[in-house]
Amino acid sequence: MRYECQCEYATIFEIFIKGEENLEQLSDLKAILHSKRANIYYLEMCRVMQKDGRILYLSETSKEYQYWNIPIANTTCLLLGTGTSITQPAMRMLAQAGVLVGFTGGGGTPLLMANEIEWLTPQSEYRPTEYIQGWLGFWFDDARRLETAKRFQVARIRFIQKVWAKDRELNIEGFNVDELQNEFDKTFKNIENAYGINKLLQLEADLTKKLYKYAAQKTGQLGFIREHAKAEDANGFLDHGNYLAYGLGATILWVLGIPHGFAVMHGKTRRGALVFDVADLIKDALILPWAFICAKEKQSEKEFRSQCLQTFVEHKALDFMFDEVKKASLFYNNEQKS
Fold first, then answer.
1. pTM above the 0.85 mark?
2. Together in a domain, 101 and 153
3. pLDDT band at 24 (very low <50, low <70, confident <90, very high)
4. CA-based Rg of the chain, rounded to a whole angstrom?
5. 312 and 290, same structural domain?
């Protein structure tokens, strides 16, 4: 069930899972695994604070103050937009729940500053070391890093095929994965033969461009040109949706204890590049089609983000991303054992 609550100055996007009403009774703020959490919050024009053992956000209307609860035990990340502030006690409690916090521009983009919350309470954080050890075990080997990037790209396409084949709403909109099978087959072959990361990045971009063209045709937006930081048509929705995917990617890497700088595709000199690698696993499958559909239907940013969150839950995006990162981390360890 989707639940949306909006007051005059603050907007919240939330999807409840069964048992949400009992979250406040849990003494362990990490009782829900990150892979099963359902919420990403985006707030504007409000103050986030801790009150009576809960995290609230306060908005001011012309006549009164209004408080709204944030169920942090079921939340992966919190995006704070225009006109927001947050108190130190609230940050401490968010840290205890393992919620990532990022400061953004209006509408959720761009991401101005992000914080890995465990830096605030390092003495209380115990996370598995096997994944970072496995990741570093292959990362300094150029050939193995390329092989890992190739497996990521194959998983990305497989996920597109799976989602687009089973999503009834996409089918109603005319998205038919069989029509793209030849393109997928060519890309699979080219990925296998790719001789370097730059070639792999080119293949990724080429396929995404073809998916843009396909989605534009299906939604009657012929002549679409991808322009970043452009609010018009599907471009704005693509930017907003991608930042939601980045929030999931950052959450997964934080939980598994893998630093964001150890990327396999997007450049070893960019500190947060691994977040982009992980987010790319789901962006084309889940964000891309709905950016075009929502643009066609003239939906608001709020409606688009709600659709994205519902889609993440419906297709178990977090589970898929967790599984792929874990497999990549332990791939060569398991290979040596066998």
1. no
2. no
3. very low
4. 20
5. yes
